[in-house]
Amino acid sequence: MNFTKYHALGNDYLVLEPGEPREGLSPDAIRAICHRNFGVGSDGILFGPLPSERAAFGLRIFNPDGSEAEKSGNGLRIFSRYLWDRGLVGGDEFTLETAGGLVRSTVLAQGHTVRVDMGRVSFWSESIPVVGAAREVLNETITVGDRVFEYCAATIGNPHCVLPLESVDEALARRYGPLLETHPNFPRRTNVQFLQVLDRGRIRIEIWERGAGYTLASGSSSSAAAAVAHRLGLCERDLIVEMPGGRIRIEIGEDYEIRMTGGVTRVCSGGIDGEMFDTSSAAIP
C-alpha cells in the first residue's frame, strides 16, 4: 500500500489512492496506519481521487480514530496539492466532492499555497446539528467539568463549537476539548475552537478536533471561528487566523461563504508493509 504524506501548517495527512486494497481502509487499519508509534503516523487519511458525478474529483476523509469526516480544510488543500503533483490539475479552479458538500479549489505558487472556497457557514441548530428548538446557536451557555462557557455553534459541512475567550492556550484545549467534543448537545460530536480575538483583522484559536484530538491547525476550524467572530461583530470579513502550526487567511462573503488560503508542504512518499497489520508478529514465541 503506497502513500504520500503532506502537512498543512503541521496538520498532516496521508493520501492513499483508490487503487489500493479497499480492505486496507477498515477502521482498525486506519487506526493502525495513523498511529504515531506503531504506524506511519498522521492526523488522518485522504482517500482519492474517486469518481464523482457532481465534481471533477471525489474524496473521502478519515480521522485517526477510524471515523469518517465530512470535510477538512487542511485536508482539501493537501489533496489539491496532491492532484497538482500528479499532474491531474493545473492552475485553473477545479471542484471536489466530499461528504460535507462540494468545494472549489485553486493551486497557487507552484503548489505551495492552495485556495479553497469552502462553502457557506450556517449557525442553525438543525444543520449543525445541536439539540433543542430550531434556532441560531449564538451566545449560549454550556457546562463541562468544573466550568461554564459561552459558546456559538456552526457548520461548514461539519460541526463546530466555538468558545470566545479573553485568552486561549493548549492546556485549555486539552482539558475541555474532549468533554465538549462528546457533550450531549452535539449528537454527532463536534470540533471545538477556543477563540481569542486579537484585533479586527486577526484571531487566534486553539483546536480540539473531532476524532483526532489536539491539532496544530485546521482549515474548517479557522473558517468556523472566523465566521463566528464576524457574526458577533468582533472582526472584519477579511482576517488572519493564527494557530500553533501557522496562519490561514479567511475571507467571508456576504452570505458567510468562506474562502480559505494557506500553505501546503510535501513531506515524503513510501509504502506500508503488510506486517504492520499482523499483531502476531510481535508475540513472544
Brief summary:
This protein has about 280 residues and is of the alpha+beta class. About 15% of the residues lie in helices and about 40% in strands. It starts with a strand and ends in a 14-residue tail after the last strand.
Q: Which sheet architecture does the biggest sheet show?
A: 18 strands, mixed
Averaged pLDDT = 95
The structural domain count equals 2
Broad CATH class of the largest domain: Alpha Beta
Number of strand segments: 18
Shape: globular
Instruction: Name the CATH architecture of the largest domain.
Output: Roll
Task: Note the gap between the termini.
Answer: 28 Å
Supply Rg. Answer: 19 Å
Order of helices and strands: EEHEEEHEEEEEEHEEEHEEEE
CATH evolutionary superfamily of the largest domain: Diaminopimelate Epimerase, Chain A, domain 1
CATH topology of the largest domain: Diaminopimelate Epimerase, Chain A, domain 1
User: Strand content of the residues, in percent?
Assistant: 35-45%
Query: Considering DSSP H and I runs of 4 or more, what fraction of the residues is helical?
Result: 10-25%
Count up the helices: 4
Would you tell me the structural class of the helices and strands? alpha+beta
Question: Unreliable stretches, pLDDT < 50, 5 or more residues?
Answer: none
